[in-house]
Amino acid sequence: MKVIYTDNNATTKVADEVIEEMVPYFGQFYGNPSSMHTFGDQVGKKLKQARQRVADLINADPDEIVFTSCGTESDNSAIFSALNANPDKKQIITSTVEHPAILNLFKFLRDKKGYDAVFVPVDKKGHLDTDMLYDSLSDNTAVVSLMWANNETGVIFPIPEIAKKVTEKGILFHTDAVQAAGKVPIDVKAANMDMLALSGHKIHAPKGIGVLYVKKGLKFHPYLIGGHQEKGRRGGTENTVSIIGLGRACELAAAHLPVMDKEVRQLRDYLQEQLLEKIPSVSVNGDLENRLPNTLSIGFDAVEGESILMLLDKESICASSGSACTSGSLDPSHVLLAMEVPFKSANGTIRFSLSHYNTKEEMDHIVATMVPAIEKLRAMSPFWKDGKMV
After folding, report:
1. Are strands 91-95 and 141-147 parallel, antiparallel or unpaired?
2. Phi-psi region for residue 310, left (φ > 0), alpha (ψ -120 to 50) or beta?
3. Domains 4-10+256-389 and 16-252 share a fold
4. C-alpha to C-alpha distance for 206 and 13, rounded to whole angstroms
5. Which residues of 28-74 form beta strands (DSSP E)?
6. Which residues carry out catalysis?
7. Whole-model pTM?
8. What is the pLDDT of residues 231-281, one digit of tens each?
9. Which pLDDT value is given to residue 322?
10. Closest CA to 102 of 74, 137, 65
């Protein structure tokens, strides 16, 4: 049975064009890019091209791109660098709906290192309380870190506006843009961004490669201490093959932005409309307008998300009940709890996240599978009677 993949916020298929670009550097061109000989230098030149391609996606300079192993390393590198640059400042600010790479790091810094961590709340649509954010800024603030777009609901924070206001006060600003990259335009120069994190496997590049954008002139303290690689900002021999693949993926992502904004958005909206029309007691989580074009977080009353996923899996449909990084927990998503989504809906929430590889026929099959699946689960639910929640 053909797999219908709608879990692209968890990871994406490596694009054929990306694989094609990478293959020669597995075997034919295997030199170390830091070596002095021509054989290694030809790999070094390919890395230079990849760095430019990544920079072009976010309107950065190539020298501002630091390659890492993943988005989590990029996030951690940014925060620890900010703290090392401001050793006397003990306040750190983030939101209640961040990815675990930031949320758990801030909790660690609060509980184990004594930092005053401020977790800015969101409202029921997932909008950030910017008034509280700005009121929390002080001379003691070492760094503000906020995600560009939420990985579960797709809700987009006004990051360019926030970054400008934070940096105008001389406070370092970092954004986790892992979910936003390749889905919405990003311009680090226009936003006066200090640091920004990306991850390759969210944009059809391989797993195990990430990016940290570091604004030119910013004092940066490396997270990994070692050799001279990445201009001394990240020690360790470069993951050359994956970097080359990431460069091509960024080039493709830039070209596909109009497709994401129009065609993928239309597919998402079609899926949403069909589910709302054919299944009662269903609600969409988050701001319906200000969200990523590929993401649908939708709750089904009186059923459990895990049970829905099991029935979808039998039809080779891949979706998620939330973030892949928190899927080991049976508790409702911390994002939905922060948004005060009612338990009856939060517990039965499914996230569909699409890509340009998806089709309308696949959406129709999802709907055709979901309708009897929800009916079956509700028939067994003690919270559902006579066609309504009890």
Report:
1. parallel
2. alpha
3. no
4. 8
5. 65-68
6. 325
7. 0.96
8. 999 999 999 999 999 999 999 999 999 999 999 999 999 999 999 999 999
9. 67
10. 74
Instruction: Domain ranges for the chain, please list them.
Output: 4-10+256-389, 16-252
The residue-averaged pLDDT of 138-164 equals: 98
Separation between Cα atoms, residue 379 and residue 388, nearest integer Å: 11
**Top-level CATH class of 16-252?**
alpha beta
Asked if 232 and 210 touch (Cβ cutoff 8 Å), the reply is no
Q: What are phi and psi of 291, to 5 degrees?
A: -145, 165
Residue 31 amino acid letter: G
372 has pLDDT over 60: yes
Name residues whose C-beta falls within 8 Å of residue 300's C-beta, 6 or more positions apart in sequence: 279, 281, 282, 308, 345, 348, 349, 350, 374
DSSP classification of residue 149: B
At 213, which helix (H) or strand (E)?
strand 210-214
The letter for the amino acid at 243 is I
Cβ-based neighbours of 157, under 8 Å, separated by 6 or more: 95, 128, 146, 147, 148, 149, 150
> CA 69 to CA 238: how far, in whole Å?
9
* Cα–Cα dist 205/102, whole Å: 22
For residues 94 and 119, give the distance between their C-alpha atoms in angstroms, rounded to a whole number. 5
Measured CA to CA, the distance from residue 54 to residue 249 in angstroms comes to: 9
User: Number of C-alpha atoms within 13 angstroms, CB side, residue 159?
Assistant: 34
The class level of CATH for 4-10+256-389 reads alpha beta
Contact residues for 19 (Cβ-Cβ < 8 A; gap 6+): 245
Per-residue tokens: 307: 């049970």
Which two tokens mark 302? 């009186």
Q: Using one digit for the tens of pLDDT, what is the confidence trace for 279-334?
A: 999 999 999 999 999 999 999 999 999 999 999 999 999 999 864 445 555 567 99
Q: Give the C-alpha distances (Å, rounded to integers) separating 75 from 78, 189, 223.
A: 5, 19, 10
User: Cα(343)–Cα(366) distance, rounded to whole angstroms?
Assistant: 24
Tokens of 234: 């990240």
